[in-house]
């Protein structure tokens, strides 16, 4: 749950605003604040509500592999992203989008959406539409441990996680007692490589077996070192080929 506003939020009552607009605020507005402006409290939420309510909507869309997502302008109520919808805009998810780039694009769309609808909202020309709670999906707060690679998972899911968890917590494994960040990866559908086994066909590319398919690693960063391409990394650490990586960091 989001934290309530601190006591100094009482200052909001002094300002007596006609309208409050929040975006990526991350906290619940107390009922006195919600009831303060005569035009209500509006929120820009980076999903097409009622999908992906909660704190991590962009991550949720990327993890699901959605082709499209969007942003919602809504009237806030006391629930978690449950208020009626004023307007929405859809956006295609690009193949190279990660959480960082997609969040920026959605809030850019959201600012346009707000400006396009603010005048009509202030004159009462827009009637907000209630959400269909039966279609609601939810997201949770992301913990750092979510970025740890389980090599028994499919390569496609791991590639989605790399995009969803950028820039934080990232996608990472361990090798020789050090954290190894996987900065740029791609999934291949078929593989007879054991999960967690590192192979390289020519010494310039890195492939790692997963529970289903191969994860190709194009760029990576060993703890305490600079980011490197696969070829650069193998020139410095040729012994990486043949390593058996595991979720608990015992990869050697």
Automatic annotation (TrEMBL):
The keyword Protein biosynthesis applies. It is an enzyme of class 2 (transferase). Its EC number is 2.1.2.9. Keywords: Protein biosynthesis, Transferase. CDD domains: FMT_core_Met-tRNA-FMT_N, Met_tRNA_FMT_C. Residues 7-116 form the Formyl transferase N-terminal domain. One of its GO terms (cellular component) is cytosol. GO terms for molecular function: methionyl-tRNA formyltransferase activity. Pfam families: Formyl_trans_C, Formyl_trans_N. It comes from the Eukaryota. Residues 141-237 form the Formyl transferase C-terminal domain. Belongs to the Fmt family. This is methionyl-tRNA formyltransferase. It comes from Geodia barretti (Barrett's horny sponge).
């Amino acid at each position: 749950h989001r934290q309530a506003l601190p006591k100094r939020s009482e200052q909001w009552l002094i300002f007596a605003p006609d309208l409050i607009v929040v975006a990526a605020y991350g906290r619940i507005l107390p009922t006195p604040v919600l009831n303060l402006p005569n035009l209500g409290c509006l929120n820009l939420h980076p999903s097409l509500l009622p999908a992906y309510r909660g704190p991590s909507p962009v991550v949720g869309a990327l993890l699901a592999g959605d082709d499209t997502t969007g942003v919602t302008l809504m009237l806030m109520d006391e629930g978690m992203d449950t208020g009626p919808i004023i307007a929405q805009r859809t956006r295609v998810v690009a193949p190279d989008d990660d959480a960082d780039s997609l969040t920026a694009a959605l809030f850019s769309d959201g600012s346009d959406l707000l400006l396009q609808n603010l005048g009509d909202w202030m004159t009462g020309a827009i009637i907000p539409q209630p959400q269909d709670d039966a279609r609601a999906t939810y997201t949770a707060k992301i913990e750092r441990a979510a970025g740890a690679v389980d090599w028994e998972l499919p390569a496609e899911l791991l590639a989605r996680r790399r995009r969803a968890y950028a820039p934080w917590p990232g996608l990472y494994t361990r090798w020789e007692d050090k954290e190894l960040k996987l900065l740029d990866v791609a999934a291949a559908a078929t593989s007879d490589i054991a999960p967690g086994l590192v192979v390289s066909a020519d010494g310039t590319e890195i492939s790692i077996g997963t529970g289903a398919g191969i994860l190709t690693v194009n760029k990576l960063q060993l703890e305490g070192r600079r980011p490197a391409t696969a070829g650069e990394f193998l020139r410095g650490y040729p012994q990486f080929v043949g390593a058996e990586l595991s979720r608990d960091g015992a990869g050697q």
